[in-house]
Amino acid sequence: MADVALKEPALRRSVFEGLPLASRAAAACALEPLPPATRLSVRGRPGVAEAAAGALGFPLPTDVCRAAEAGGRAALWLGPDEWLVIAPEAEAATLPAALETALAGVPHAVVDISHRNVALAVSGPAAAYVLNHGCPLDLSLSAFPVGMATRTILGKVEVVLWRTGPDSFRLECWRTFAEWVVAFLNEARREFD
Amino acid sequence: MLIIRCPICGDRPELEFRYGGEAHVARPAATEALDDQQVADRLYMRSNPKGLTVERWRHVHGCGRFFNAVRDTVSDFFVTTYKAGEPRPDLDALKKEAVR
């Protein structure tokens, strides 16, 4: 058998690489890939929310459909016993262990889903309008204020949508759906081209 | 599009929900004592009323929770929703309320 050795370390490719994210419509609605992150699915009964503060620096949000954010980490309420924790990629090894320590004694589950999702920043004055092409939620500021985060749908894809500013959203979708999501949003914002 | 009130998340579009069959179908205590007809009835026979019906729904693309809903099968109107585990509401009282 031929001795095949990798001369270079395998190159890491973003799933967004080569996708048409740049567009003249960007002034109305820009799509920007967000850097890889540590993502953890945290599940457990209410006691988990306070106990997690020991590792995160802040308790998991218990308000319905709200996100809490501090020190580069964020925790999104997805359900009464489910949170999505997003942290810098460098914490991939340390944060799960820290959470396990902080949550010891409270029934819980911490699952690393860093590579399941990818994130896209959708921003611009028409961001909500473009998202509404596939998302049936009321995305007006009164119904979906800054700091609100929820699991919902975009077209045929389940996504997590987090409003990070009046005109900006963080959109988390499954990696394998990224190409479809970009194509869908491009189609939706074509009228601004 | 129908707006369904999730008892946890509030008013949400129907696309986020999945139907979960008739609610309050209790599993009998001594299943080993049932004959085939009783087992088949429990598994497959549903009330299918014309009017108010009590159903399970799941906010699958949201909080992921099952809950119960009272829906009018004629008008498709969701009269009320309540958390799973809560007792079945009085349908006659709801009917009167709906008429008002």
Structure description:
The complex is a heterodimer of chains A (193) and B (100). By secondary structure, chain A is of the alpha+beta class. Chain A has a single domain (25-192), classed as Gyrase A, domain 2, CATH 3.30.1360. Helices cover 18% and strands 33% of the residues of chain A. Chain A contains five helices and ten strands, in the order ββααβββαββαβββα. Chain A has a five-stranded antiparallel β-sheet. A five-stranded antiparallel β-sheet of chain A has the order 3-4-5-2-6. In chain A, a hairpin with a 2-residue loop joins β9 (157-165) and β10 (168-174). Chain A is globular, with a radius of gyration of 18 Å. With 100 residues, chain B is α+β, with helices and mostly antiparallel strands. Chain B has one domain (3-99): Folate-binding superfamily (Folate-binding fold, 2-Layer Sandwich). Chain B has helices at residues 36-44, 91-99; strands at 3-6, 10-13, 18-22, 52-58, 66-72, 78-83. A four-stranded antiparallel β-sheet of chain B has the order 3-4-5-6, with helices on one face. In chain B, β4 (52-58) and β5 form a beta hairpin. The two termini of chain B are 24 Å apart. The mean pLDDT of chain B is 91. The A-B interface holds A 64-65, 78-80, 82, 136-137, 150-153, 158 and B 1, 8-10, 12-13, 15-16, 61-65.
Tell me roughly what share of residues is in helical segments of chain B.
Answer: 10-25%
The proportion of residues in beta strands of chain B is 25-35%
CATH C-level category of chain A: Alpha Beta
Number of helices of chain A: 5
Shape of chain A: globular
Count of spatially separate domains of chain A: 1
At the fourth level of CATH, the homologous superfamily of chain B is: Folate-binding superfamily
The level of helicity of chain A is 10-25%
Sketch the topology of chain B as an H/E string, one letter per element: EEEHEEEH
For the largest sheet of chain B, list the strands in their spatial order. 3-4-5-6
Structural class per helix/strand content of chain A? Answer: alpha+beta
**Runs of chain A with pLDDT <50, length 5+?**
none
**What is the total number of structural domains of chain B?**
1
The sequence of SSEs of chain A as H and E is EEHHEEEHEEHEEEH
